[in-house]
Design goal:
Layout: E1 10-12, E2 16-18, E3 20-24, H1 33-42, E4 47-51, H2 64-78, E5 81-85, H3 106-126, E6 131-133, H4 144-165, E7 169-171, H5 182-191, E8 198-203, H6 204-210, H7 214-222, E9 226-231, E10 233-235, E11 238-242, H8 251-261, E12 266-269, H9 278-296
Helix pairs in contact: 3-4, 7-8, 8-9
Length: 297
Amino acid sequence: MSTITPAPTATTAETGPRPLLGYGTNGFADHPLADALDVLQSNGYDAVALTLGHPHFDPFAAGWLDRAIALRADLERRGLRVVVETGARYVLDPVRKHRPNLLDDDAEAAERVAFLVRAIEIAALLGAECVSFWSGVRPEGVESDVAWRRLVDRVREVVAAARDADVRLGLEPEPGMLVETVADALRLRAEVGDPPELGLTVDLGHCVVVEPDGVEGALRAAGEVLVNVQVDDMLPHAHEHLELGAGSVDLEQAFRVLAELGYRGVAAIELPRHSHAAPRIAEESIARLNDIIERIG
């Protein structure tokens, strides 16, 4: 992965190296992108997780390439690293949330593959840490084994594009999707040949909903292929992203494990339903995470 500029290592006087704290733009849907970046920069964030699609960055709009080049310059000026996120709800279909996906029939799945390839192209231009993506929900009437074979084939296509562009991928297990747990993601990675381009994204909130060994078990299982972390709180009975402290995620345990793993990638707040209070939550969230990082030393 030689052409990607290595991420600067975030440090504090008390703790030394630590993850790059970031915030997802899907939690700033009421702000223009420049304003959202202003808020993050003013609060001391190290990174931004850029969700492609409405309202911040249309990956298929005319001029997308020039805009990506300009955005990279802006991010470098601000000292912000970036992760490219591809989980916008209606980015490909105005009626069907998160569809088409990689499990659909060939014609529809090709749209998702093309979107992910464009995301990889944008990530290369931005010098992004990775492109994060998920498998999708199994379509009605498609057997699990058929869906799995489709997923393996299509992920191979996406990995090939990432290899050509020298970009990392972060496959995210998602509650209710075909790849739901870290174990599922590692199985998929093995079946496509354990390519170095394909890492894992772990959402800390998801761990209390679907991971049998919780947050610690999921992070340790991901281990050296962990390339991206999403930070939110959650309760075990519902896949609902909550503000930090409003659920049952043990954030101190999670960041302690990240420290033990030597994780130095992005750990970005993922609150896609909280744009109405984004400035307040951004300020409170980084204060809480910095306090945790200082305590664990």
